[in-house]
Give the backbone structure.
Amino acid sequence: MNTSRAVIDRSRYRSGLDRRLFGGFLEHLGRAVYGGVFDPSSRFADADGFRDDLLQVVRQMDVPLMRYPGGNFVSGYNWLDGVGPKENRPARLDKAWNSTETNQFGTDEFINWCKLIGSEPMLVFNLGTNTPEMAAAYVEYCNIGKGTHWSDLRREHGVADPYDVRYWCLGNELDGPWQQGHMNSAEYGDVALETARLVRAVDPTVQLIAAGSSNTELPTYGTWDREILERCYDQVDAISLHNYYGNTSELTGQSTPRFLAMNLDMERQIRHIADICDSVQKQLGSRKKLWLAFDEWNIWYRARTPADMDGREQVAPPLLEEPYNLEDALLTGGFINTLLRESNRVRIGCLAQIVNVIAPLMTGDQGVQKQPTYYPYLWALKHARGKVLDIRVESETYPIEGAGLRPDFAIDAQVPYLDVAMTLDEQRTEASVFMLNRDLENARELELDFQPTGPSRIISCDTLTGPDLKAVNTFENPDRVVPQSLQAVSNGQKTRLKLPPASYSVLRLAFDNDR
Ligand code: AHR
């Protein structure tokens, strides 16, 4: 068997890991909020109407950050509808998803839920149909102690202490023709600039994220990012990236080897947008370097027809309930490796979304079900800590061709069978190695060669694999795709393991000798 090698010099690292890289996303969409997070009529509901079964699962995952309230929803949302006495909150037609929004869950409930699950909230302004002034008012409601109109309103609602929300998105996907309030780049650049100025006057400590291109397929991809930054660069801290991937005839020719390389498309997008930021920085002579927020990423291609997105004016209609299979879980692992590799630039990432809507978790009458994609995400949340190491991987490659996400962005390349990323937590003297084997036929041996010394012991090694790439979990059969343990052998400087065909694995190592 051909052996691949990873050379690991523990003193060479790419970045200190900000765990916000593995955030989640909760949108008022389908059954995400109502029926997912919040469902007073459920037998699982707690005294506040939160589904306690879901809450326990999400709390245990330790998701660092949660984006809210949209998504497309936010571009028609008035945050005032969702605060204050519940009996006074209006039911409205949400035009993004043609659904009825009862507003029984709003900002105060969201922040409470975040406290319960241990996540930091990241809020999005409506810059589609609402004004910069109302965005600034939202920050005043959330972040000012007392003595102003909007902060006192929060206090009237029973919340004495400010929420101190640090991360705010300047609208959502306003480059997209589907977006309420869709604009051209000049219009958006000006609105983002104006909003940022007002918001910073209310709270100078916030971090503001401009809405970058919604995907790599729009004709404005790239030029949008450049043109908006030329207008608002000085007032923003970061720009957002979004993308959804799929094993479709257009994108991959429905070829799994091509599909499993799609994290490399994500990697290209990150580098491309980072280059645009740096070139605008240079052009403007600015001293500030922007960071990136990949605040919507996932696989989404099945539940994507117009009918899948039409709520028919219902409350909490089941929308975008994408069933994920093993193949999707493997690529999710690939995305995690890419985010780790690019973590010197991408500070925030949000798996879109957290529950019921294109999500790793589903709720039903029986409780919570974990889709296969839950496991690689959980491993990143639990085991990616400390620093991301700059490792050198030597692996055989295979050729792919294919359109990818954009014709002039196509990958026509040799793709390594093994995709490996690694973190090292010096305080806990632990390391985690995340390994995708894209070879569908063969197990591949990997030798980890440590410099200067190898681990003292193996803590655990788990893999997600199976004979059927299309296997899914259901409420009836919830454990079809679950991790199994894998053998790894360590002797001094070298650790060896045999990665099963089509697998994503995590190896955890102790460096107790370093203590
Ligand atoms: O996450 C689903 C949708 O995808 C979001 O509402 C939107 O921002 C994106 O197009």
